Every structure is written in structure tokens, then in C-alpha cells.
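Student: Send me a single protein entry containing the residue sequence and its fold in C-alpha cell form, directly below this note:

Tutor:
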Amino acid sequence: MDRFDILIVGSGHGGAQCAVALRQTGFAGTLAVIGEDPELPYERPPLSKDYLKGEKSFERILIRAPAFWEERAVTMLTGRRVVSVDSVAKTVTDAAGAQIGYGALVWSAGGSARRLACSGHDLAGVHAIRTRRDVDQLLAELPATRRIVVIGGGYIGLEAAAALIKADKQVVVLEAMDRVLARVAGEPLSSFYEAEHRAHGVEIRTGALVECLEEQDGRVSGVRLAGGEVLPADMVIVGIGIVPEVAPLLDAGAAGGNGVRVDAQCRTSLPDVYAIGDCALHVNAYADDAEIRLESVQNANDQANVVAKLLTGQDAHYDAVPWFWSNQYDLKLQTVGLSIGHDATVLRGDPAARSFSVIYLKQGRVIALDCVNATRDYVQGKRLVAERMTVDPAVLADPATVLKEL
């Protein structure tokens, strides 16, 4: 049985960054990354953007060149899914039954794309956008595809729609809620993006409930909505969130539910077992100390750095300001903070000029900003969020106000 001083489960952003940071901080012990993905670690955000549009090759989205891992003695165990953990024996077992021992375990397995619960969810022509394999399969079918229905009006769905309408496809986006981005942004931003997509030829339908997917000759042929209407579809893309990959840890006795619970040092309730990234359920100061999972590259990387420091004898805890981004058409959206629970919004700038910010307030304090083609607001607004500053909304709304001077 192989054994490593540190074993990292998951080869996404968090797992890769943890391995990189461990070597950068001087860790000299044996180190391995095991992941279900057959590829070496690669960036996930481009999958629904540049990679889907064919503007970046796979080699350009690798997190590090293949030689990097060899030169730093990071053993890459690709294409292997961990199915169980024994925290007493300090071993994991993969789907083939092979066991691997560890001194410390870092769980960075992320999540799998949430599937539709209705009939037809597993038909040919139904795709998620979570891995390179997902997108490669989608791209292989694209030449014979004309009509595409995207289920889910979040960032993944809208980014895919923006890429596919540019590929001269007919695209319909279905969102169950009353506006796109309803879970993550305020109404001004939702309205702006709905208008942008419609202007580019995407049909946006809100309040749209899917009853089932229809088939013809084993492939998806349409999406039946509640009420009976059927939208013809040669392809369906499902972007309705993820299911955190934590079952092996929970089965081993780790605390959690919607994710695995960790403390401010990313420790689970199991000895010498840490969890980071999309699957880590943590108390977040920027969400009023609510327990949340953050699905972002920033969160994965920052938590990875915390664990790397702890495992090399340094003190560290996670308290980073959350940030995200989305590219659609020629629009760069940059978000800082979490708008959860906001009670007021301030519009700064003019959406018609396609450069503006939405600032979110809670009890007068700045808790988040959504900045569209407004990088200066994003950079300078981070301090307002970090300091939980109280600012006169009229001052915030004036584009002539330089945020860093506040």
C-alpha cells in the first residue's frame, strides 16, 4: 500500500494550490494529489468561457505545466475516485479497491454538477459544464446542433448562452425564479444582463418550470414546461448548481450535511483531515457569520494556502474577502463581498453606458459590489467591504466620488 505524508483528494483549484503552496513553504515530505479527473490540474472558469468558445486550448488552461509536478515531487494519481475514508487507520480507498495511507488528508473534491430530477435527465444530448470531458463532449455534438436550451440562469448558464449564441446557435435560457442571477445579485444587475442577452438574440424565460425532457431515437428532442409547452431542443445544457462531493467524509463520521463542516483553520471534525474549496462548509464573516459554502476560485485558493501554512508549522486562519468574476460578451463582471441579506442597493454609473456598479448595503454598511466594466470601483470597493464601512448612499451613487478616498 502506498502512503504519503500528505494526501490531497481533488485535483481542482484548491487541491492544486495546496500542493503548490506546500512546496513553496518548504514542505519536503511525500505529497500526492488524487483526483477523479483524468487530466492534470486545470482552470475551471474558462470551461464556460474561452475554452467553450475555442479561444483557449486545453494546454493554455493548465494550472501548471506537466513538468512542474514532476520537478517538485508531487505524485499525481489521476483518474482515481476516492470512495471511502478510514480516519482511524488513516487510509482512503479508491473505486478500484486500492488503499492509500496518509499522515494528513486534505479534502478538495469539490462537487459534481447537479442533475435534473425529471424524466429524460440522462438522455444523450444533455450536458453539464463542470469538467473538460463535459465540454469536449458538448463541442463534439455542436456542429450537428441548431437549437439549444439552457436550464438555469446563473453564471454558468449565462456564460454558456453568450458563447453559444456567438456560435450562431438558437439559444433559450430557462430560469425557474423571476429573474436571472436571482440567488447572487440584485434586481438592477439581473435586468441589465437579461437585456444584454436578449439584445444578442438569446431568448430568456423566467418563472419557467421544467416538467421533463422529451426524446427521439434516444436523444433529447425537447423540453416540456409545466403547462405543457414543449421547446424543441437538439441539445440541453443544465446549469443548476453542484452537489458537494463529501459522502466519503460524512460516512467516516465527519460533521456536515450540505458540505463538510470546517473551522477557521479548515479542520474537519476528523483527526488530521482538512477540507477546502467548494465542499467546505464554513462560518463566513462576510455572510454575518452564517455557515456557507463558497464556490469560487478565490475561496479554494485562499483556504488551500491556510492549510499549507498550518501543515508546515505556521499559524493561519481563513478570513479572506470573497470575490468572483464572470465574462459575458464584452462585459467583465467583478464582484467583491457577499450580497446575502442586503436591504438596499445603490446604482453607481449608467447601465446604458455599459460601465456601472451596484453597491449592496445592509443596515447602512457596504457589504458587496457588483462592478460591470468598472475595475476601478471593484479594486477600490474591496476596502469598503473589508472595513464594513457606513457611507452615505448619495455619495456612493456619485461616479465622481473616488471610492478609495472614502
